[in-house]
Every structure is written in C-alpha cells, then in structure tokens.
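Hi, does anyone understand the following?
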Amino acid sequence: MRKEAVGRRAVVHGQDDPRVIALHRAVARLHRELAGYRAQLADRQIAEDELAAVEAALRAGAPEAVRLRHSLLLIAGAIGSVSALAEALAEVRKAVELFGGPTP
C-alpha cells in the first residue's frame, strides 16, 4: 500500500477508502450469515473460499473491479437463491458496485 502525506497525517491507500470499508463490512456480514446457515449447500465451500479471497484482496488495498465482479458471480452462484442469505448477498453486490464496472 502506498502512503501519502495529506496535511499532517499519512493516508494508507485502501485502508481509509470508504468503498473498501463498505465491502469489508458486507463480506464479513455474509460470511457470518453463511456460517450460521446450517442447511446443506452443495457449493458452500466455493462461497467461503471466494469470500476469503475478497477479504485477502481488501487487506492488500483497493481490489480490481473485474476481480470483484468475478468473485461476486461465484459467490452468488454458490449460494443460489437462498432467501435467508439474500439480503447479505445484496449488500455485497452493492458494495462491489462502488468499485465501478470493467474498463473497456
């Protein structure tokens, strides 16, 4: 992560980015709700692995929009249409959208 002096305080890029904060919170919520969802999900491990990958990317700074969208598709596909997780998944989708779309 790159540091810059802004006024008198140093800013670590990614750490104070509101997009990163929002996505981190949304991913943490979905991860908690998925862990608490006890019904059988055939692709639960895929969803958990992708959530962990997004968390790792967030720790490294602002992740790429294309990679986030790919992860979102894998997570949504793994979770399917589980209504108990729909709200938390929608929160992740909204947070991913903060990073914008793919560049042409």
Observations:
- The first strand starts at residue 3 and ends at 6.
- The two ends are 26 Å apart (CA to CA).
